[in-house]
Design brief:
Blueprint lengths: L1 E5 L6 H18 L1 H14 L8 H7 L9 H15 L2 E7 L10 H19 L2 H16 L2 E10 L7 E7 L6 E4 L12 E9 H7 L22 E20 L7 E4 L11 E17 L4 E7 L6 E5 L1 E5 L2 E5 L2 H23 L6 E2 L9 H5 L15 E2 L2 E2 L4 E2 L7 H18 L15 H14 L1 H25 L4 E6 L5 E6 L1 E2 L6 E2 L6 E7 L3 H18 L4 H10 L6 H9 L4 H4 L4 H36 L3 H47 L10
Parallel strand pairs: 1-7
Antiparallel strand pairs: 2-22, 3-4, 3-11, 5-6, 6-7, 7-8, 7-9, 9-10, 12-13, 14-17, 15-16, 18-19, 20-21
Helix pairs in contact: 1-2, 4-6, 6-12, 8-10, 14-15, 14-18, 17-18
Length: 677
């Protein structure tokens, strides 16, 4: 079950439970310090552990212990960046299984179909929530998880679908590895632990018996007098198979497993070797019984981690997110804020300066004047040396020390530096004015934390690889499914059938497919960059405005810019705005016009030579008249051809000038950098 044992049907449930618990204990012991640090990070994000043991001492003296979650705002910025960046998924075929070029197109269509299915699955609401939950944990405590599973489409169908589920508690997952090196794409075991009360367990699993254990004898982590642990266990076994090289008399050599070779070819096996095929199985179990079980397709355990920062330090694994390095700074900020609050709250309690005898008879009234709000103060008028003493006066408090104010501000600067996030990343106003300059400064902060979003992309790619392996098995039979294209437009397709128009099979294909995933850039940033780049291009080459004016206006941030772009688009020739081939068609038409001119020139020279020969040889007036008529006809054709070309050129120039004038009126308000910020 750790990838070293061979799977046999004779393995008992007791052996599976015992081996599973052993792997769980190994993972728990190996990650003991890591998990404690992660738990502390989770608690710190939720306001716990900011003061430690000092809180009790300060509260005993009635001193404030404030917790200001400034750090959480930094976390939210990085987390929300993932919400704005959709993954771009690409599936490509490696080539036909038998090297037949005729299958290339079919396999390319199958790759597009797989890509559309994966994109639709990963962009579903459930998947988005699962990814974001895992990413939030990765940025916070250093590691989050989500998983893949099969489920039925609904209660009235036998068809299955792939589900992407969130794992809310990152500490409920215990990964296992065959090697000492952490390789999450090659996990050999994994446990997902859930603890519930015995009453809830009996309600959820009424057919599963549980024993009543003696409290004093309980040493098992999955046992308790009031609670019981349910463990979902993914284990890896191996299945030994013999791979053979077969050389038939009347065919090409091929490789296949021996149990798949036809009997008439088994006599032509020329070489063989034993290979270990991974076998993944899933069990839901308690300490005593297996509740459920299933076979898992493929060679990967479908529990996917999203890592924040991971490093091996002299054999000790460290996993952390953004919180770990900023804890002390956050504590320092809480201290300065609490000190400031303490200073300000003591100002109303400054003592009164009172002359001797001024509160005589009113002592009880004045004893609690700093703790109870009173509408008036009574004192006794007193004279000294025949002069009336002023009323009691509260001493003016000293102003807040500038060192305290500066220390609090410096702490925020330290927090920004440690987290690699600056004013522009936090939405604060900087010295930059143009959109491009603001984006450039924002990207300085983005690069400091880019490893988080990049690690999310790596995890999504691993998930897409697993989904791609599952697709032909889960989505079998003739059925309708939604797919999502690159332009995010949904489409309903019927799988495993024949297209009635093309007579081609619509299926998920066979063989190997490559998966690549890239995380997209913020749409607003891309739009601003495109608008500024187009503005510079138009200034340098205004003659091209007539063929790109609609795209230019569409990227502007004006109210109604889409409507203006649509109107400009109607003035552009249809062959230019076609999705594909517009530029090629224009170039082809120009080339054909040039060729016609050259052909006419050659024809003119040839006929001119013929006319000269005929004129020299024929003296008859009728012949000369015929020659002159031919010459006039040739001149007329030439003039018509030249006129057509000139008309085309003038029409294009007129249309370009007209669009330029229209655009100058439209674009006037946004010709400065300030308007693009």
């Amino acid at each position: 079950m750790d990838g070293t044992q061979e799977w046999k049907n004779s393995i008992t449930d007791e052996e599976i439970i015992e081996g599973s618990y052993k792997l769980y204990k190994e993972s728990k012991d190996r990650e003991f310090d890591v998990r404690n640090d992660m738990l502390d990070d989770i608690q710190f994000e939720n306001g716990q552990g900011h003061w430690g043991n000092v809180r009790g001492i300060r509260e005993a003296d009635d001193r404030p212990c404030l917790v200001v979650p400034r750090l959480n705002q930094f976390l939210n910025i990085v987390r929300n960046e993932a919400r704005q960046n959709k993954p771009s998924i690409k599936v490509s075929a490696r080539g036909s299984l038998d090297g037949n070029p005729g299958k290339e197109k079919q396999r390319e269509e199958a790759a597009k179909l797989r890509q559309g299915l994966i994109r639709f699955l990963q962009y579903s609401t459930k998947a988005t929530q699962a990814y974001q939950m895992a990413y939030d944990h990765a940025t916070g405590c250093g590691r989050g998880w989500f998983r893949l599973r099969e489920d039925y489409v609904d209660n009235k169908s036998m068809d299955k679908k792939i589900e992407i589920d969130m794992i809310k508690n990152p500490l409920s997952v215990f990964p296992g590895f065959h090697k000492e090196v952490y390789d999450y794409s090659d996990m050999k075991s994994c446990h997902i632990i859930e603890t519930m009360t015995r009453d809830k367990f009996k309600e959820k699993y009424p057919k599963i018996a549980i024993s009543e254990w003696d409290n004093s004898l309980i040493t098992h982590d999955w046992s308790g007098d009031k609670e019981i642990t349910v463990a979902e266990f993914y284990g890896t076994w191996i299945k030994k198979r013999k791979l053979c090289l077969v050389q038939p008399i009347d065919g090409d050599a091929y490789t296949a497993y021996k149990d798949e070779i036809e009997d008439y070819d088994k006599d032509f096996i020329i070489d063989s070797r034993t290979v270990n095929i991974p076998v993944i199985k899933w069990f839901k179990m308690t300490r005593e019984a297996i509740i459920d079980r299933a076979d898992i397709e493929g060679k990967f355990i479908p529990v996917i981690p999203v890592i924040g920062y991971e490093k091996d330090i002299a054999g000790r694994l460290e996993i952390k997110g953004m919180i770990r390095d900023a804890k002390d700074i956050a504590r320092m900020y809480d201290y300065w804020v609490s000190t400031e609050a303490e200073y300000l709250t003591t100002q109303p309690k400054q003592p009164y300066l009172i002359a001797a005898g001024q509160i005589e008879g009113f002592e009880e009234y004045w004893e609690d004047i700093n703790t109870i709000t009173k509408s008036y103060a009574v004192y006794k008028e007193t004279s000294v040396g025949g002069r009336l003493v002023p009323p009691p006066q509260r001493q003016m408090p000293a102003p807040i020390p500038s060192g305290l104010v500066n220390a609090k501000a410096a702490t925020i600067d330290d927090m920004k530096a440690v987290l690699g996030m600056y004013a522009e990343n936090l939405g604060e106003q900087g010295s930059e004015r143009s959109g491009r300059a603001i984006i450039a400064r924002q990207r300085q902060g983005d690069r400091a934390n880019y490893h988080y979003i990049d690690n999310l992309g790596i995890s999504l790619q691993h998930a897409a690889v697993i989904i791609n392996q599952w697709l032909p098995v889960v989505y079998d039979g003739t059925r309708q499914e939604q797919i999502l294209g690159i332009d995010d437009e949904p489409e309903l397709v019927t799988l495993n059938t024949v297209n009635p128009q093309t007579q081609e099979e619509i299926n998920l294909g066979d063989g190997e497919y490559d998966i690549t995933v890239s995380m997209g850039v913020n749409f607003n940033n891309k739009r601003i960059e495109a608008a500024e780049s187009m503005m510079e291009f138009v200034r340098a080459a205004p003659q091209f405005l007539g063929i790109m004016g609609d795209l230019f206006v569409k990227n502007m941030d004006w109210p109604g810019s889409d409507l203006i772009a649509d109107r400009i688009r109607k003035t552009i020739p249809a062959h230019i705005i076609e999705k594909q081939g517009g530029e090629e068609q224009m170039a082809m038409q120009l080339q054909q016009a040039v060729q016609r001119i050259k052909q006419d020139e050659i024809l003119m020279r040839q006929m001119s030579q013929q006319i000269q020969l005929l004129t020299a040889k024929v003296e008859d007036e009728d012949m000369k008249l015929t020659v002159e008529m031919q010459k006039a006809e040739l001149d007329s054709k030439t003039k018509i051809a030249v006129a057509e070309i000139n008309n085309i050129a003038r029409s294009e120039e007129s249309r370009r000038d007209r669009n330029m004038k229209i655009f100058e009126k439209i674009a006037q308000p946004v010709t400065t950098d300030q308007s693009l910020t």
